[in-house]
Amino acid sequence: MEKICWANTENFEDADFVIVGIPDETQSHALRKGTAEAPLKIRQISNIRDSYDRNGDISLGRPYRGTEKKVHDLGDIARNQIKNTFEKISLSSKIPISIGGDHSITREIITSILKPDETISLVYFDAHPDFISSHKNYYGSVITDILSHIEIESSVQIGIRTPEEEELENIKKHNFHVITPFDIHKHGIMKITNSVIDKLGTNVYVSFDMDCIDPSFAPGVSVPVPLGLNSIDCVYMLQRIAEKGIIGMDIMEVCPSYDIKYRTSHLASRIISEVIFSSGKNHND
Fold first, then answer.
1. What is the rounded CA–CA span in Å between residue 221 and residue 229?
2. Contact status, residue 71 vs residue 9, Cβ threshold 8 Å
3. Neighbours of 89 (CB within 10 A)
4. Cα 277 versus chain centre, distance
5. Cα–Cα distances in Å, from 13 out to 7, 22, 118, 131, 276?
6. Could you write out the three-class secondary structure of 137-182?
């Protein structure tokens, strides 16, 4: 299997970060199909566009700032392997970066890496709140399904712009903090990011649906929505969050069959690299 270009160790035990592909979209209701293809395509594009071959010598087009970490690509797993795989990663004190697949996978990852009484500070990037409660265990009910694991007062949703009425009621009922693209436009990325950093607790998990980004930057997603975030703002926020420290991240809903010249897959690869290189490293603002 082709590894993501950021992988630099074959030894799981040596790794700081573990890449896991989960090519499954069985709990998606999207009209666009194909997110199961994303782990393979993101890896392929990372090796084509983020690395350079000069007479057999491979050089990475790495992030401008930050330090290289040890990264192991575990390959792809099936949905029914999530629990055992992520329990192993968690017990080894490594940071998983998961590539889906549909967003319902996040539920199974989080419940696998946490003890029953543990909670997380969740940073949930998405165009949709995924806060449906009238239906469960699918890509539109992720927040409902993991609510008992979320420390609401230290969590945030970012990029929301197309909530259903039921979701608005749930956001209000649980007092879940939401940042819209209009909030960032109004207050500025620096102020918004500082407020997010100040809000977060210690157990920070980032779930990143690529449809949080405007389709002009990321057209290849399963449920595109106009009026989204720009890619620089997203990456800046992710850099700052990674500096603070995360216990895991997933990147979901890339849909290669609807992409334009692999722009979304390439952006996903760059996002992964920025998170890895920024982790635990203080940058100058």
1. 14
2. yes
3. 24
4. 15
5. 13, 21, 25, 37, 17
6. CCCCCHHHHCHHHECHHHCEEECCCCCCHHHHHHHHHHCCEEECHH
- 130-167, pLDDT tens digit by residue? 999 999 999 999 999 999 999 999 999 999 999 999 99
Regarding pTM above 0.85, the answer is yes
Identify the residue with better confidence: 99 or 202: 99
Q: Contact, 191 vs 285, CB < 8 A?
A: no
- What domains can be seen in the chain, in order of their start residue? 12-278 (3.40.800.10)
Q: Is 254 helix (H, G, I), strand (E, B) or coil?
A: strand
* CA–CA gap between residue 176 and residue 174 (Å, rounded): 5
Whole-number average pLDDT of the chain: 96
Query: What is the token pair recorded at 272?
Result: 């992964």
Where does the chain have alpha helices with state H? 38-49, 82-91, 105-113, 142-145, 165-174, 181-187, 189-199, 231-244, 263-278
pLDDT at 283 > cutoff 90: no
For Cα atoms 193, 195, 197, give the angle at the middle one, nearest 5 degrees.
Answer: 70
Selection from 35, 30, 49 nearest residue 257 by Cα? 35
Task: Give residues with Cβ within 8 angstroms of 167, minimum separation 6.
Answer: 128, 129, 130, 131, 132
How would you label 178-213 residue by residue, b for 16+ Cβ within 10 Å and e otherwise?
A: bbbbebbeeeebeebbeebeeebeebbbbbbbbbbb
What order of strands is seen across the sheet that includes strand 71-76? 71-76, 17-22, 95-100, 248-252, 204-209, 121-125, 156-158, 177-179
